[in-house]
Amino acid sequence: MSKKTKIISFNAFEMNCISHLSPGLWRYPNDQALHYKDIEYWQNIAKISEQGLFDAVFIADVLGVYDLYGSNDIGALKTALQVPVNDPTQLAVIGASVTKHVGFGVTAGVPFEHPYPFARRLSTLDHLTKGRVGWNIVTGYLPSANKNMGTSELPHDDRYELADEYMEVIYKLLEGSWEDDAVILDRESGDFADPSKIHHIGHHGKYFDVPGIHLCEPSIQRTPVLFQAGNSTRGRKFAATHAEAIFIAPPTKEYAKIAVKQVRDALLAAGRDPYSAKIYCLATIITDSTQDLAQAKYNDLLKYASTEGALVLNSGWLGVDLSRYNLDDPLSNIKSNAIVAQVEALSNSTTNEGKAWTLRDLIKLTGIGCQGPKFVGSPSQVCDMLQEFVAYSDADGFNLAYATTPTTFSDVVEFIVPELQKRGVYKQEYTQGSLRHKLFGKGDRLGHDHIASQYRVNGAKSSINDYAGTGRRQFTKKDIEYVI
């Protein structure tokens, strides 16, 4: 694909909590974030997203509390900053029950759930959504999560080593355990499945031992669409190996260009087409019918933004206690075991004034939508900015963080989508089929150029060994369909 004018894509960036990336805005008149516990709230988010032809409702998650700021969790609890937080996975089924097309990307961390039950969760979601689920693979960055799981916090790069093996187990279960024709539904014999076509995976690794079969029959996509948000050096290597959609959070257009190129280069180095994965940038859109109304809306929203909440959030993202910094201290020498990519973004970019980022700048930037850019203006102005950003950075679209929910999303659907469609840079309708086919137009399942294809069984009975004398077939390297 060339860098011609692209079709711009949107995801609704949500989280099963009160304050996601705009702490304090739950107090804004008519904001609905306090209804996060209600099924109807999530059904409405899904309907709005589908009305706007969004690719997906991208649901973030953390399994821990932001307790680095001030070395305690007081600020997070006072501002409802991503706590309380409910499980994200059920939201995919809730949203899919009232929509036909929009996808659902659910976040789950590999250090916190064994791959054997999690593979069942993925297959279940893919079955119930009729192939519209994606998995945002995260390695975790909050030390509080490890403490409460009773596990030691791994160094940043070691988290990705564990994640690589985790993915190997997932691929063996989802792609290699059941052959496509294992389910035979023979009513005469009473045989539901042909056991000779269901394979024990025989995985014995550094972190996991999983000898048996996958518990679910194959779903539409088998492996859900793979999202990933790592943009550190090690994170990019992992994403380039596994991901189909990559989320980055650059604070400026200029750094977005650098970050996108790094991802494209990593894909190429991994032997993949550099455009085989879609890249979504974090952003927030504040718009109305005119520039004056949009700017007035933004100014009004800022009155409710919580400085304390922003510092709590950024302390967690950067892995440092920002209460120890003065307002004008530069943020260029942070050493982090958290989201290294965000540290790199602040260290390797400058503010609009061309100077190093300080705590004062960070507070100003992140009151609404955290570290992503804000596009404020009339539909025409915002669309100009979106097109310029995509053309300059080579990104594919945006994960849209809300200021208020669901109004931020409904404003985008009302004002921005029609203008982009009029310009020919936004889809007019959904493609039929699974989320993967909607995104790439190449079918429901991962392609033969993806690493997961290496774990598919070729079905040649002569190459299958008995498993532990049971007469069942063991998954061995001889069974693997290698693709060069």
Automatic annotation (TrEMBL):
Keywords: Flavoprotein, FMN, Monooxygenase, Oxidoreductase. PANTHER family: ALKANESULFONATE MONOOXYGENASE-RELATED, C2H2 FINGER DOMAIN TRANSCRIPTION FACTOR (EUROFUNG)-RELATED. InterPro entries: Diverse_substr_monoxygenases (IPR051260), Luciferase-like_dom (IPR011251), Luciferase-like_sf (IPR036661), NTA_MOA (IPR016215). NCBIfam families: FMN_nitrolo. GO terms for molecular function: monooxygenase activity; oxidoreductase activity, acting on paired donors, with incorporation or reduction of molecular oxygen. SUPFAM superfamilies: Bacterial luciferase-like. This is 5,10-methylene tetrahydromethanopterin reductase. Residues 32-390 form the Luciferase-like domain. FMN binds at D61, T107, H156, Y160, S232. Gene3D superfamilies: Luciferase-like domain. Belongs to the NtaA/SnaA/DszA monooxygenase family.
